[in-house]
Write a structure and sequence with these properties.
The chain is α/β, with parallel strands linked by helices. Helix content is about 35%, strand content about 20%. It has a seven-stranded mixed sheet with strand order 3-2-1-4-5-6-7, with helices on both faces. One of its GO terms (molecular function) is phosphoribosylglycinamide formyltransferase activity.
Length: about 200
């Protein structure tokens, strides 16, 4: 059983999808903790499911690297990132770039979802950037986090057509409809060993 630590900043829709998947006894991964950089509303999903939560606020640290060290320690206290079976850290809507020390500690067992077909449109405004570029299609990527910004190895992608006159919010919502099942399948395949981390 693959142990998961899930990191969020917002409402936790990807977290909720993973929680629903993990509630099935045949799903080969178990969420052991959920962490955030703020008092994210999505933490309530984890609490309702009886899963331990923690908050590590960057403002309580002297610098980003110290914040990353505290975040890593909080995850490792739940058995992820330690021992012969390191588990998997899933950035499921964490709206911060993880510090280099944190990435070195966990990568490649550290994955993220991104609302674009990487390497196209990296960064925080991927959906807006795709529309501004006149893209006719975009999508979602699940990738390994490395020390760059959305530059890690791509694990899985799903495509979505950009519709005429579509707003950023409308397109982003359609991407999220693909993002949740893609993340659930990717984590399952990593747990089963049918998808190998680089």
């Amino acid at each position: 059983m693959l142990k998961l630590a899930v990191l969020i900043s917002g409402g936790g829709s990807n977290l909720q999808a993973l929680l629903e998947a993990a509630a099935d006894p045949d799903y080969p991964a178990q969420i052991v903790c959920v962490g955030s950089d703020t008092d994210a509303p999505g933490l309530e999903h984890a609490r309702a499911a009886g899963i331990p939560t923690f908050i590590v606020r960057p403002k309580d640290s002297e610098n980003r690297e110290e914040w990353g060290q505290l975040l890593a320690t909080a995850i490792q206290e739940h058995g992820v990132g330690t021992g012969p079976e390191p588990g998997l850290v899933v950035s499921a809507g964490l709206m911060r770039i993880l510090p280099a020390g944190f990435v070195r500690e966990f990568s490649p067992n550290l994955i993220n979802t991104h609302p674009a077909l990487l390497p196209l449109f990296p960064g925080a405004h991927a959906v807006r950037d795709a529309l501004a570029a006149g893209a006719t299609e975009t999508g979602v990527t699940v990738h390994v986090i490395d020390e760059g910004v959305d530059t890690g190895p791509v694990l899985r992608q799903a495509r979505v057509e950009v519709l005429p006159e579509e707003s950023e919010a409308e397109l982003h919502e359609r991407i999220k409809q693909l993002e949740r099942p893609l993340l659930v399948r990717t984590v399952r395949d990593i747990a089963l060993g049918t998808l190998n981390l680089p």
